[in-house]
Amino acid sequence: MANHAKQVSTLKAKIELYDIENGNNIEKLKTEDLVKRYDNQQAVLSLCIHSADVSNPAKPFIVYKKWVDLVFVEFFNQGDLEKSMKLPVSILCDRETTNISKSQIGFINFVVKPTFDLLSVFVPEVKQYQENIELNISIFQKKALEEDEAKLIKKSSINKN
Fold first, then answer.
1. pTM of the full predicted structure?
2. Which of 18, 22, 112, 113 is most buried, by the most CB atoms less than 10 A from its CB?
3. Residue 104's pLDDT band (cuts 50, 70, 90)
4. C-alpha separations of 102 from 92, 93, 114, 145, 156 in Å
5. pLDDT tens-digit series, residues 42-65
6. How many structural domains does the chain have?
7. In this structure, what CATH number is given to the domain that contains residue 81?
């Protein structure tokens, strides 16, 4: 994740330089210059590995949601431990303040979707996964709205009493 932005910008530059689109012109990455060829191969392979690493939102919702639940059990356990040790609580690890739905919306919008959009330039067959991403973000957007409405109703009823 530390290299996400750099990786995206590097690959976007290669896409523009070699006019790669919809899986076409990929052969231009195999330049005669062996150093550039190696660099190009490593950039594309790194994108593939990074895509796999952040791929849970590209899976069917029932699978993705299970992973989200497991990740947040781990995150919240870490936050509880940090609190018990009087340490600052890491981002997304505070069960009292973290909104899981909104965190997933951000993760998809800022990491997963741009990664898969980039991957689709090289491998157009990932369209199915992009469709899952769109569906999953819409599900979490709906959940976030429902959660916000429930908070407003609760807050309203507390203020009346």
1. 0.85
2. 112
3. very high
4. 11, 14, 17, 9, 22
5. 999 999 999 999 999 999 999 999
6. 1
7. 1.10.1300.10
